[in-house]
Amino acid sequence: xxxxxxxxxxxxxxxxxxxxxxxxxxxxxxxxxxxxxxxxxxxxxxxxxxxxxxxxxxxxxxxxxxxxxxxxxxxxxxxxxxxxxxxxxxxxxxxxxxxxxxxxxxxxxxxxxxxxxxxxxxxxxxxxxxxxxxxxxxxxxxxxxxxxxxxxxxxxxxxxxxxxxxxxxxxxxxxxxxxxxxxxxxxxxxxxxxxxxxxxxxxxxxxxxxxxxxxxxxxxxxxxxxxxxxxxxxxxxxxxxxxxxxxxxxxxxxxxxxxxxxxx
Length: 264
Hints:
Residues 1-20 form the signal peptide. Keywords: Signal. By secondary structure, this protein is α+β, with helices and mostly antiparallel strands. It contains six helices and twelve strands. The strands form three sheets. It has a five-stranded mixed beta sheet. It has a four-stranded antiparallel beta sheet with strand order 1-2-4-3, covered by helices on one side. Strand 3 (32-36) and strand 4 (41-46) form a beta hairpin. The radius of gyration is 20 Å and the shape is globular. It starts with a strand and ends with a helix.
């Protein structure tokens, strides 16, 4: 029996998957030979344009307008539409910059309604967001759950004041570096609760990662969801099921206090 080796390298521009196949097995069109490995293995490389070699995985909902929804669906992956400004389609950037996604489609619908109102000539659209590769999502892209605000901990927040805004981001970066040493905070997906009473959740996909995600956008009637998706509470970021399946680093209160104190 042979072992199948699987590893990922994530940079700002390229997500690479390196797979070791037994010699003589033969390559597929999804890989290019990189080098010979040890123990009778050959090493193959899969670059970002081939990341759909494995199945996609649904990760939540985002609310936007019909123009942006069409742009995303036409190109097959998420990026800022031409002429758009920064930000996350109306969501507060309390976890940092990027695209905000939620486990509750009703929350996404509220943001979609708001987004369409400020973009005349468009209609609200809720998008089911998926990682184009389940392997990349579960293994390569790192994730942390940001602790809630409490005594000595203040990591979740945003401000129109540039200095305060940067202070929050510095704290979150410090926290991520403490919890997951060696990873890039700028490419780490951050999770937190959205509604602290109901325990609905949110995540932010950093701008450097959005190309690895796709959107299936639809007109949401408040009830019917697309096949292959599910909403809160059955689908919950705060559940142990998703925390374990997606390898989300749990809240570390001691390190959160250290990160908060580092930027008073």
